[in-house]
Structures are given as structure tokens and as C-alpha cells.
Amino acid sequence: MQGDPDQELSGAPFREVGEARLGPGARVYEHGWQSWTPTGVYPATATSPRPPSARSRTMHYRAQTEFPERGFQAAGLLALDPGEGGPVQIWSAPDPSREVPNIRAIDEGERLRVSADGDVEQTSHGGDLRSALGAWAEELARRAGLGKPRSLSPGWCTWYQYFTDVREEDVLENLEALDRLRLDAAVVQIDDGYQAGIGDWLDRSSRFPHPLSELVDRIRASGRRAGIWTAPLLVGARSRLSAEHADWLVGDADAGHNWGQPLSVLDVTHPDAAAHLQHVFRTLAGWGFDFFKIDFIYAGALAGRRHGDAGGIAAYREAVRLIREAIGPRATLLGCGAPILPSVGLFDAMRVSPDVAPYYQPSDGDLGAPSQLSAALTGRARAFQHGRFWVNDPDCLIVRPHVERREEWAEHVERFGGLRMSSDRLDSLDSWGLETTRRLLQPSPPDPFDLR
Ligand code: 9PG
């Protein structure tokens, strides 16, 4: 795949970090960079999914990164089950809060050759792949000093029914339906569509005629908590923020293209931009929101020219720290489109997959793009992170009648969620959809899943 040459990493060279004998049935586990990056287990002789376009590489895989033609390229975590009863081998980043090397593996007949563009440690584990990944995650959580993640309440989200067309009255209709149908959703989360622009998080679109604080009051008056979506590290070319503060953008960092506009990155190492970011979240918290879904935050970790001398991952972690400081320790913070391993210790919940959709297969074959298949494959492959790093968000439950293979999706959410959020227009559910929603809207399981 051809990339924009300005976007290439200065490119540390790949050095060999290990090799292993391949037995019959040997399998490789490849962990993707961010929430939406395909993650899975494949025959060791296979080639993993590749971004079909430059945009997909930036927005669904890992920007500024070359992918080899054949074999595997993991971000910070690759495992091998050698297939002949030998121990599972894991190659991983020693401290992914500082650096997440790309780890390549390629089969050379009898052997798997492993190389990386940064420091990697190798560990060996008895048992199967799942138990090895669980043990690996526990060790990373221990090193990061994490306690047990707190259990989260179930909720309802606007996105997978209304998308960017959501209106204030849609939120109110479903708020009323939650009461009438006696559904146990403790959080009502407004997603993309309420805002005036990508970067202008405190300005409303015309579909929200009243101040958001009034909508929050209505939600809270029903005994629920109010949640809000933002993409706080993105700045759209058409936003007011971009017009007024061009000096707050990371130089030479292309975060992709969406909402009909190119996307830049907020430079949180600029003190005024950092103050602005905190002002946005203090204001939202002041309006009464206490559940924050922060999305497209892979953008914060891109390489580029910054005001301060922080690299991508350090700048990213600083951005999340600033947001957490602004919303306070008790608010719920959900990451999405987030670089997974650099986020350990920073979030209550994490989207561990691409988006679900009402259709089963991704339209263009991109397993990083929305589809039930994309969400199920990657969500399952990251199940071991739940209860260790955070609460896994498998993406929302959608079970209205037109949702393709809705029974399978409900089963996935039941097995691998984690955070339980419904995202249908509640009055469009048939009796199976309503009963399934009622049954699945439960607090997140406090412990890791039993994956046997
Ligand atoms: C709002 C949505 C929802 C959803 C998020 C995220 O263009 N893209 O590549 C692209 C990828 C993911 C995506 C939207 C666009 O979904 O995961 O839950 O909040 O944003 O826009």
C-alpha cells in the first residue's frame, strides 16, 4: 500500500527479536494498535488483514506505519501457540505507556521469524493462548499498579439508531420509553451529532434547540446519569476552533478524513490548547454530564511537530490526564478509537473493537470498518482485557428487527460485554428485541470473563 511520504515514521529499522519452531496447527495472535484495528488469532502461515486504503490505515490501523506484504504486524503484543504442545511465546512492549513497537512475524516453513522496530520482551507461558494472554495482562496491570476496575451501570446511547441526525426530541422520546418500558439504563449518552463542529464541542447543532444543561436536567430528573460523546483531540478543517487557533494544531499530523472534512490534531503540549481542552470538559461536567465517551483519540498519539517536546504517546497520555483532571475521579471515562496498550490505567471502560452495524459484513471488506463481523472478531480477541485493564465495551446492543443476525450480536454482547449499552429506538423493538434488551441491560461483570 502506498502512503503519503510526509506521513512516514522516521522509521526505526526492524531487528530480529526471536524465532520459534512451528508445529502443525501453529497459530499467531496479533494485537492491533487502536480500538478499531483488527485483532485476532490466525494460522501461523496466514497473512493478517491489511488496510485497503491510506484513509483506513490512518483511521482504522496505525497511521505513519508501513505494513509488510505477508505475515503479521502487531502493535506491542504478538503471541505464538506453536501447535505441538509447547509453551505459548509472547513478544510484547516492556512498557507500552512509553513505547509500542510494531512486532512482525513471518513463517519461513518450519520456523516463525519475529522482528520489531523497538524494544520487546519475550515471555513463555504454559497453558493455552487465552490463559497466556490473561496472565500477560495481569502482569502488565500489576506493573501499572492497577486495582480491580469498578463495575459500570448499563445505559442507552443515540449513535446506532440516529447517527449524526440525532435530535433533542429523539433523546427525550427514548428517555420516556426507558421509564415506560421499565428498562434498567442508568446512563443516557448523547453521541455524535449534537455539536456544531468537529472541535466545537460546546456549540450546539440546530437539532438541539435548547441548552444541553436543560437536557441533562431532564435526564437527571428521571434518576439517570447523562453521558456525552466528543472527539476532543480532533480538529476538523471546517470548525471554528481551526479557524481561530491554527497554532494549536500538531504540525504535519494527518488524522484522516470524516464528516466531509480533513482532520487535524489538537496539540495539548501547547499550554493554551491544554487550557482549552480542560475548559471544554469542566464546562460539560458543570452542565451535569458525568459519563464521557472520548472518541478518535488515536489522533493524540500521532507523530508530528508539537509545541512541547513530547512524542506521540506521551502527548496522548497527557491529553487523557488533562481530561480526567477536568471531569474528576468519579466521572466515567470511556475510550474509543483509542491506542489500546498506551491507555492501560487511564480509563474506566474501553471500546475494544470496530463499530457494530446493522449489517454483518463490512461493505468494502475492511475488518477495521463498521460491521457486526468486525466488531465480533476483534471484541472477542480482546476479551481477556476485561476486568484487568478496564471494563470492555463490546459496542452497543442493537436488536431492532432489521439488524442482520441480531441473535448472534446479542449473544456476543452477553458473552463479551462488559459495558452494556442499548442503541435502538426503543419503540421500534419487537417483543424479542425488548426482552433481549431488558435481559442484557445489567451492570458490567466485575471479574475477567471465563473464556474456556
Ligand atoms: C460517531 C461514531 C460513534 C462510534 C465510534 C466512532 O470514519 N471512520 O473511520 C469512522 C470510524 C469509526 C466511527 C466513525 C467513523 O465510529 O466508534 O461509536 O461514536 O464514532 O461518529
Short note summarizing the structure:
With 452 residues, the chain is of the alpha/beta class. Helices cover 26% and strands 21% of the residues. It is built from eleven helices and 22 strands.
Radius of gyration: 21 Å
Bound molecules: 4-nitrophenyl alpha-D-galactopyranoside
Q: How would a textbook summarize the main sheet?
A: 8 strands, parallel
The spatial strand order of the largest sheet comes to: 21-20-19-18-14-11-10-22
Q: Could you tell me the mean pLDDT?
A: 96
Q: How does this model look, in words?
A:
- The N terminus is likely disordered.
- With 452 residues, this protein is an alpha/beta fold.
- Bound molecules: 4-nitrophenyl alpha-D-galactopyranoside.
- The site of 4-nitrophenyl alpha-D-galactopyranoside (9PG) has 12 residues, from helix 1.
List strands and helices in order, with pairings:
Layout: E1 15-21, E2 27-30, E3 40-43, H1 54-60, E4 72-75, E5 77-81, E6 88-92, E7 102-108, E8 111-116, E9 121-125, H2 129-143, E10 155-157, H3 159-162, H4 168-180, E11 187-190, E12 195-197, E13 200-204, H5 212-221, E14 225-230, E15 234-236, H6 240-244, E16 257-258, E17 261-265, H7 271-286, E18 289-294, H8 312-327, E19 332-335, E20 349-351, H9 372-381, E21 391-393, H10 406-416, E22 421-422, H11 431-440
Parallel strand pairs: 10-11, 10-22, 11-14, 14-18, 18-19, 19-20, 20-21
Antiparallel strand pairs: 1-8, 2-3, 2-5, 4-7, 5-6, 6-9, 7-8, 12-13, 15-17, 16-17
Helix pairs in contact: 7-8
The structure holds 4-nitrophenyl alpha-D-galactopyranoside.
